[in-house]
Amino acid sequence: ILKKFNPDVIGFATGNGGPRSSKAKLDVAEQGAKSGGMAEQARTLIDKIKGDESIDLENDWKVVTMLIGGNDLCDYCEDKESFSAEKYVENIQAALDIFHNELPRTFVNVVSVMDIVEIARLQRTFTCDILHFFLCRCVSYASDEALEELQAVNWQYMDLTHQMIDSGRYYDREDFTVVVQPFLEETKLPKTESGDYDKSYFAPDCFHFSLKAHAAAGKALWNNMLEPVGSKSTDFTIHYPLKCPTQERPYLATAKNSNTSFASANQASQNDNIRPVSGPSAAVIVGCLVLVCVAVGGAVFALRRRKQLKDQDILRKPLLQKSTDMASTLVLT
């Protein structure tokens, strides 16, 4: 979608392989990663950007997307202190601080973690049962009481993330911002017409996203990026239409250009803390499309600027202009 607005976008992975493969480009996500490794991933990403001669660090716009937390929750029962909500947010903040200190012209998406408890309710195959024992037994093999506790911690992950970002910690510059994108928070586990969970959204391990779910999540992230802070969608399905920039809002949404004050953002975050009762009675309030269970760390797209404006007209295709004003970065086609 980004390439629709700017064909010169670079940095995305171009094939299979780990973060150190040549096809990874600026994608430094680690399979099985936890939030404790986010600062290291941030450091790796920045080193890659600075070492890439095709990127103008000071002038090229950069979009960084962070999704982490599923594996923390999968191991919560093994070490409740290390995987507490407070520790989770502390780890995310450490990574964001690194970006804030070293990356100019950067828009950071922090995608909220999903309700991982939904995995326990997916009808699994024998193979999936074995894999889940090793991948996420704190969820898949937990008692109802343990699931209720885990879901409460899951909600805290979301709430404390919102509170940390809404505090205004990263709103002190015109060329840098962090925005929570909550499209996973209330996404329900999709079902077929017969009422069974739709396994076409999952890989054969009943854990990761299928291509179908990846496509839906990509659309949902894009939609969230255009939606004003305070009015973002908190769920998605594959049938949701793709949103487009308008004359009234021709840019990526930030707290500033959404007319969201720090105080009102904090109030909204506090209101969001009023959560439904967790446990079996609230089983489908939030779904789990499984990518979140294997943490996806930092992935960046460097948006290459045009060196000159022909005839003083605004270029039609680039996503991000030369302007340092975060409120005017997206250019309509």
Question: How is the secondary structure organized here?
Answer:
Elements: H1 2-5, H2 38-51, E1 61-67, H3 70-74, H4 85-102, E2 106-111, H5 126-135, H6 137-140, H7 144-166, E3 176-181, H8 211-226, H9 262-272, E4 296-303
Parallel strand pairs: 1-2, 2-3
Antiparallel strand pairs: 1-4
> How many β-strand runs?
4
Secondary structure class reads alpha/beta
Shape: globular
- The helix/strand series, from N terminus to C terminus, equals HHEHHEHHHEHHE
Query: What is the C-alpha radius of gyration, as a whole number of Å?
Result: 20 Å
Can you give a write-up of this model?
The chain has 9 helices and 4 strands, in the order ααβααβαααβααβ. The protein is globular and about 50 Å long. The protein has 333 residues and is α/β, with parallel strands linked by helices. It starts with a helix and ends in a 30-residue tail after the last strand. It has a 4-stranded mixed β-sheet, with helices on both faces. α2 (38-51) runs parallel beside α4 and α4 (85-102) runs parallel beside α7.
